[in-house]
Amino acid sequence: MATMPECEFLLLERSDGRLNLTFNRPERRNAINMQMGDEFAAVVAWLADTPEIRVVVLRGADGHFCAGGDIKERRNQAEVEIADGDDPIAARNERAGLAFLNFERLEQTTIAMVEGSAFGGGLGYACLADITIVTRGAKMGMPETTLGVAPAQIAPYVVKRIGLTRARQLALTAERFDGEAAYNYGIAQYLCDDANADSMLEDVVSRVLKCGPRANAATKAIMLGVGTMAEEDMIRFSAEKFAALNRGSEGKEGQNAFAEKRKPTWQVSDND
User: Fold this and answer.
1) What is the pLDDT of residue 74?
2) How far apart are CA 21 and CA 23, in angstroms?
3) Domain ranges of the chain
4) Among 74, 154, 217, 258, which has the highest number of CB atoms less than 10 A from its own CB?
5) Global pTM?
6) Which fold has domain 10-209?
7) Which of 169, 187, 67, 72 is closest to 130 using CA atoms?
8) Phi and psi, residue 14, nearest 5°
9) Closest by Cα among 199, 161, 152 to 183
């Protein structure tokens, strides 16, 4: 089993098949600096090799989710000259994009609990998660264009989440919006009062844990494949996933539990 990465700007708490990942730069409203981004990528790589984790919860420290990129650090990087054709700004942005892609592809069910500020990359994380909960008091948006830059790596995920027309409007006006608007736009699937964030989160986690971990992983793979495969390939891929689940220990346990009118007992194992 791989060792969980040690992080300075991410708090990692593992318990009973769950990982709580907390963005932890509260003095900067959890803005993403280069080290935090690298730590996030390392945790994502670890999760890809750790099927024992079933649910990943993203949250921010001290009542703010994530205020986006660290503008002060990024401004200083703009003064660094390109050497031998290698642009450090482009390289950092590309690494962030690959971490986003790898996070989206994780087999685990991912949940974002969005409170307070969620701008730029913070909004990106909210759109990346399988399930997003937002409080009414959250403040969200894509302010990049007001800074003379683009929401480069988060833009595809915002488009996938809410559609091209709304995504263009939000990005090209840099409009700020609250949690209720985020829910209405389709960024979040759950909306709650700020005081009820903890109870809502635990309710959603408990619902996920009632599902078979392999079934959830296969379902994610099928859904993420929509639009990326030819229709015939999609049918075949889905059929193979279904057959493997139905023949496997998880499918047998789930269907036996239904017939016996009891709750299933899920096991996470590399052997099936």
Assistant:
1) 83
2) 7
3) 10-209, 213-259
4) 154
5) 0.95
6) 2-enoyl-CoA Hydratase; Chain A, domain 1 (3.90.226)
7) 187
8) -110, 130
9) 161
